[in-house]
Structure formats: structure tokens, C-alpha cells
């Protein structure tokens, strides 16, 4: 009885996301933007790199779906799927006029459809490094030699 001073216990619920939301998408740096020692190390000298966002939805991206790209250091970039992109499982996402500074940047995307937003994608740990290494030759140590010593 509620009138006797007893209260109904509150039960905490932990949500795993909106059950009507699309599945979490995946994010990857486009290989052409990945200028590190391999095309998969997520290191670039490009301050406006391009990414691929992928969905596992059997219908692919639908027209008017919203993909939001989050990158540390800049404002979120919102991309609305066009008719030309609809049906595809992958969409290209660029930073446009929002260049990144050198350093580490965490990046991820979300997918919204019909007012329901997915959980976040995987995180791409992007490293932007626009500073070229310098070469210096040791002087005097190779005098009269046919070989040179170079330090990087």
C-alpha cells in the first residue's frame, strides 16, 4: 500500500541504445588519405583527410539518413545522404574547409534515421603529421671515403 509511507523502489536501467536506431556504422580512413608507412596505419600528412562510413543495414544508406562525423579539435560535420548515395553501403565523408592541426585526433561517426540515432562507430585514432623529417650528414667523419653517413 502506498498510503502507509512505503515507497516503490527505483530500479536503475542501463540502455544499450535506441532499439529503433540503425546499427552502429563503421569508419575508416580512405587509403589515399593514409600517407603513413602503410595504407592502414591511420597516419597522414593531409590536414583534410577523407573517410569512409559504412552501414551494415541490408538496405544500405537511405536518402535523408544523417551521418555525423566527430573529430577532436573541430565541430561535428553533418552529412545528409542524397538520392545518389542511397542504397550504397559506403559513403565518402570529408572534412571540407575544417583542416586539422598536427597531432592525435579521435574520430567516429553516428547514423541517424527517422529521429533515431545509432551508437557510435569504431574510433579511428588518426595521427596528422605534416612535419617532414630532416636529413643531416655528419661532416669530417667520412673524409676521403666513398661513402657518406646520413642520420635521420
Highlighted features:
152 residues; 11 strands; Immunoglobulin-like; 6-stranded mixed β-sheet
Quick structural gist:
This protein is 0% helix and 32% strand.
SS-derived structural category: mainly beta
Quick check: average pLDDT? 83
CATH level-1 class: Mainly Beta
Query: Which architecture name does CATH use?
Result: Sandwich
The major β-sheet equals:
6 strands, mixed
Percent helix, as a range, is under 10%
Shape assignment = elongated
Tally the beta strands: 11
Q: Number of DSSP helices? A: 0
Overall number of structural domains: 1
Series of secondary-structure elements, N-terminal to C-terminal: EEEEEEEEEEE
β-strand amount: 25-35%
Task: Report the C-alpha radius of gyration, rounded.
Answer: 24 Å
Verbal overview:
It is a single chain. By secondary structure, this protein is mainly β. The chain has one domain (26-137): Sandwich (Immunoglobulin-like). It is 0% helix and 32% strand. The protein has no helices and 11 strands. The strands form 3 sheets. Strands 2, 4, 5, 7, 8 and 9 form a 6-stranded mixed beta sheet that branches. A 3-stranded antiparallel beta sheet has the order 1-3-6, with no helix packed on it. Strand 4 and strand 5 (77-80) form a beta hairpin. The radius of gyration is 24 Å and the shape is elongated. The model is unreliable at 1-15 (pLDDT under 50).
